[in-house]
Design brief:
Helix content is 29%, strand content 33%. The chain has 3 helices and 10 strands, in the order ααββαββββββββ. Strand 6 and strand 7 form a beta hairpin. The longest helix is centred in the N-terminal third of the chain and has 22 residues.
């Protein structure tokens, strides 16, 4: 492509957080969940590597290697996509404040999830913890009624109508996303 550079150089091939988020959500919308997960993992991994080596979040990133470009400490829109992708694609939580519903796809090994996620005027915690034989304990805590649909990747998703307080359920081993 004319004008493209492996360093990015703004609109000559750079990787931008808002467009990466749009690409991942488009892949999901059209049924390419696995590819969306791979794109998310690679993008967040490269962004984390640049953060480790430079100590900052950049306005945009090089498309072919781990390097940041543009404005330093650009957490504004450069932080939006990665935070949303971490919550939605890596941790598997999609919460909707308007009707207090959430879907949760716990797929990672080890203890993982979110604690005290503010959604509208409420707080929601969803934590998966490993137990014996590869099973998981799912702990869901809220300060208001919520409906949470859990899809462990094993069988049919299960919906829980949560009341204020904590609900704990044990689920079979989960499939890993990455």
């Amino acid at each position: 492509e004319k004008g493209y550079t492996p360093e990015g150089q703004y609109w000559n091939g750079a990787v931008w957080a808002p467009t990466n988020y749009m690409v991942v959500k488009g892949l999901e919308e059209y049924g390419y969940e696995n590819l969306a997960s791979k794109v998310t993992s690679r993008y967040l991994g490269n962004m984390a590597e640049v953060l480790r080596t430079t100590g900052t979040i950049w306005e945009n990133y090089a498309p072919e290697h781990s390097a940041g470009h543009g404005v330093r400490n650009m957490v504004g829109w450069s932080g939006d996509g990665p935070i949303a992708l971490l919550i939605e694609n890596v941790l598997g939580v999609r919460a909707f404040a308007a009707n207090r519903t959430a879907t949760w796809r716990p797929r990672l090994p080890g203890e993982n999830g979110l604690r005290n996620l503010t959604v509208g005027s409420t707080h929601l915690s969803l934590v998966a913890s490993p137990v014996e034989n590869g099973a998981r304990t799912l702990t869901m805590t809220t300060d208001a009624p919520w409906t949470v649909t859990v899809d462990t990747g094993k069988g049919k998703p299960q919906t829980f109508r949560l009341k204020k307080g904590t609900t704990v359920v044990e689920r079979p081993a989960v499939a890993e996303a990455f």
